[in-house]
């Protein structure tokens, strides 16, 4: 899936997915209860996951992140879209109707 269709999706964490910060200035752990997938992510990715509420489009979430972090809009869009695509494929994210 290319990034353009992804940007219009309203995404949220799957019901079996949880995440927890390991502390200030530490990574965040993402865990899928059904699959057993365990990932770590950085501060930006953790903020991205927290913002995926199923109400805002991926483009809106990325725009909000861009305003918070010192990254180019293009880099942030590319990285977060790639992450969303991977997490969708692994069923850690789901599309909200």
Provide a descriptive summary of the structure in words.
The chain has helices at 3-7, 43-51, 58-68, 73-89; strands at 10-13, 17-21, 28-32, 38-41, 53-57, 93-95. It has 97 residues and is an alpha+beta fold. It has one domain. It has a 3-stranded antiparallel sheet. Helix 3 (58-68) packs across helix 4 (73-89). The longest helix has 17 residues, at 73-89. It is globular, with a radius of gyration of 13 Å. The protein starts with a helix and ends with a strand. The mean pLDDT is 89.
List keywords for this structure.
single chain, alpha+beta, three-stranded antiparallel beta sheet, 27% strand, globular, 4 helices, 97 residues
Mind sketching the topology for me?
Layout: H1 3-7, E1 10-13, E2 17-21, E3 28-32, E4 38-41, H2 43-51, E5 53-57, H3 58-68, H4 73-89, E6 93-95
Helix pairs in contact: 3-4
- Given the C-alpha coordinates, what overall shape results? globular
Residue-averaged pLDDT, rounded?
89
Give the strand line-up of the largest sheet: 5-1-6
Distance between the termini: 18 Å
Order of helices and strands, N to C? Answer: HEEEEHEHHE
Residue stretches low in confidence (pLDDT < 50, at least 5 long) are none
Tell me briefly what this model is.
This protein is α+β, with helices and mostly antiparallel strands and 97 residues long. Helices cover 43% and strands 27% of the residues. It has a three-stranded antiparallel sheet with strand order 5-1-6. A three-stranded antiparallel sheet has the order 2-3-4.
